[in-house]
Amino acid sequence: MSFSRRVFLKQSAAVAGALALPGKIHGHEQKKIARPVLDPSTLAKYVDALPIPPIARSSEKKPVPGHSSLRVPYFRLPIREFACQVHRDLKPTRVWGLGTSSPGPTFETRGGEGLLVEWANELPSAHFLPIDRKIHGAEGDTPDVRAVIHLHGAKVPPEGDGYPENWYVPGKSATYFYPNEQEAAMLWYHDHAGDQSAECVCGSAGSFFDPR
After folding, report:
1. CA–CA separation, 7 and 1 (whole Å)
2. Which of 158, 174, 167, 156 is nearest to 192 (CA)?
3. What string of pLDDT tens digits covers the 212 residues of the chain?
4. Are strands 67-84 and 115-121 parallel, antiparallel or unpaired?
5. What is the distance between the alpha carbons of residues 36 and 19, in angstroms, rounded to a whole number?
6. Could you say which of 37, 84, 142, 188 has the lowest number of CB atoms within 10 Å?
7. Which H helix or E strand runs over 186?
8. How far apart are CA 157 and CA 28, in angstroms?
């Protein structure tokens, strides 16, 4: 059976229209997409200075796990909720991020000089956004709020990778050792919790910077 171009376009439009309407399609509830509260085109452009994250500061030196004679700088960075003003003409908005800034603090490092970072989950136990329980890994038996931090592009031991299934809940923390043996570069860290990266820590990105 062949179709003319006009018939094809008409049927395509009908299908697109059906997908946009509420109802059941293939057994799934369809909902109207809510209009955004804010029209971004109404905001003035280029009126805010580029945010410069603060530099993370080590509080002490601690031994590397498995190598008690090797002591390296130790950092503790909380994952928490705070308010952030994302535009001059907007009120501060709620953000889940690291420290008190979005983007998160920058770690200034030197090649071959390792460091320990404790990523502490201090988020609320209840999520303020809806969670899609149909996504694999976010089923009903998983906590609403969980996090784990991954340093993108770093050479790290497996136990410090921050892989998606290694998440932990509020009140818990994970301390990772970063040998810092990769080539000089600006790396970035981010939340990596399985199937909740977009919902859990929206302002979590930050960087490790080797200025060699």
Report:
1. 12
2. 167
3. 444 555 544 555 554 454 444 444 444 444 555 656 788 889 999 999 988 899 999 989 999 988 888 999 999 999 999 998 989 999 998 888 898 888 899 998 888 889 999 999 999 988 887 777 777 666 677 788 889 999 988 899 999 888 888 889 999 999 999 999 888 888 889 888 865 554 444 344 455 554 44
4. parallel
5. 19
6. 37
7. strand 186-191
8. 43
Which residue, among 211, 194, 169, 210, has the nearest Cα to 79 in the 3D structure? 169
Distance between CA 51 and CA 103 in Å, rounded? 8
The pTM of the full predicted model, rounded to 2 decimals, is 0.73
Interatomic CA distance for residues 76 and 59, integer angstroms: 8
Given the structure tokens 């990778």, which residue do they identify?
A: 161
**DSSP secondary structure letter of residue 26:** T
Q: Give the span between the Cα atoms of 22 and 182, in whole angstroms.
A: 51
Task: Enter the DSSP assignment of 124.
Answer: -
Q: What is the DSSP letter of 140?
A: T
- Residues 155, 181 contacting (CB under 8 angstroms): yes
Instruction: Report the number of secondary-structure helices (H) and strands (E) in the chain.
Output: 2, 11
Give CA 64 to chain center in angstroms. Answer: 27
Question: Is residue 179 within 8 Å of 155, Cβ to Cβ?
Answer: yes
